[in-house]
Amino acid sequence: MAKKLKGLVGKLIGDANAREIGRLQKVVERINALEPGYEALSDEALRAKTVEFRRRLARGERVDDLLVEAFAAVREAGKRTISLRHYDVQLIGGMILHQGKIAEMKTGEGKTLVATLPLYLNGLTLNPEWEELARQRWGDDPDRWGFEPIDSVPVGRGVHLVTPNDYLSKFGVQWMGPIYHALGLSVGVIQSAAADPEKGSFLFDPDYPSPDDRYLNLRPIPRRRAYEADVTYGTNNEFGFDYLRDNLVRDLSEQVQRELFYAIVDEVDNILIDEARTPLIISGPAEE
């Protein structure tokens, strides 16, 4: 009886997974159909897609409405910048992550590359504060908007990739940074620097002549600027400690983080189960 029940459950789950994969495969076919057209775009036209997508969001379209075209743009940017083309199964993985679900991938199957798809798509989302300023400056017609920061307020809401260690976050930005850069999105990285957190923040900049090869293409910036990037990579500990430090500031202007919107957690079982048992604590001298 137990075996029959186990077999029935396994069959139901298997059938559900197969149906979901079949549904997503149809979306993959739509992405593949766009590939020849995106290959014909110039670098400038491919970069301009980001402004086009954001303008459509400002007109009322949803992020899901842009998925097919956004994934096609990321795939093309990957081919041009780092000579990597997202496989069909990686496109499916990107869609699963966009839905907020867990995707299990073995080492070598391209987790770092897969993450660029939903990070770019969700990184397009407009910052409500910026939208209000845009209306004040250019009016209600998004066709007249210039999609650039206004008074230091970033265009996008910002997305995060959470990694278990500094090396993975830094390497991820250095490797995948050219994809985001080609599409016109900024990408920052947070590194641990216990003595002075401001010394552990960088922005991907392919033109920056770093004096240290370990930080190739990474330009030092204030912590707050790293969080204002469209995409921010960092460890669970650094994100957590920055949250704690933000709750200890004497003035809100001293806070570095902004509203949390969308994040992908690498090695989610390790970070949300194993690491979660270790509390993050900031201590200091007690006032007399």
How far apart lie the N and C ends? 69 Å
Question: Helical amount among residues, as a percent range?
Answer: 40-55%
Unreliable spans are: none
Question: What is the CATH architecture term of the largest domain?
Answer: 3-Layer(aba) Sandwich
> How are the strands of the biggest sheet laid out side by side?
4-3-2-5-1-6
Radius of gyration: 21 Å
State the total count of DSSP E strands: 6
Q: Major beta sheet, specifics?
A: 6 strands, mixed
Q: What is the fourth-level CATH superfamily of the largest domain? A: P-loop containing nucleotide triphosphate hydrolases
What is the CATH third-level topology name of the largest domain? Rossmann fold
Q: Just give the CATH class of the largest domain.
A: Alpha Beta
Number of helices: 10
Percent in strands: 5-15%
Shape: globular
Average pLDDT level: 92
Along the chain, the helix and strand elements come as: HHHHHHEHEEEHEHEH
Domain module tally: 2
Structural class: alpha/beta
Describe the structure.
With 288 residues, the protein is of the alpha/beta class. The protein folds into 2 domains: 2-123, 3-Layer(aba) Sandwich (Rossmann fold), CATH 3.40.50; 158-277, Rossmann fold (3-Layer(aba) Sandwich). It is 51% helix and 9% strand. The protein has helices at residues 2-39, 43-58, 63-81, 88-98, 111-123, 128-138, 166-182, 223-227, 236-246, 268-274, and strands at 159-163, 187-190, 201-204, 218-220, 231-235, 262-265. The chain is globular and about 60 Å long. It starts with a helix and ends in a 14-residue tail after the last helix. The model has no long low-confidence stretch (mean pLDDT 92).
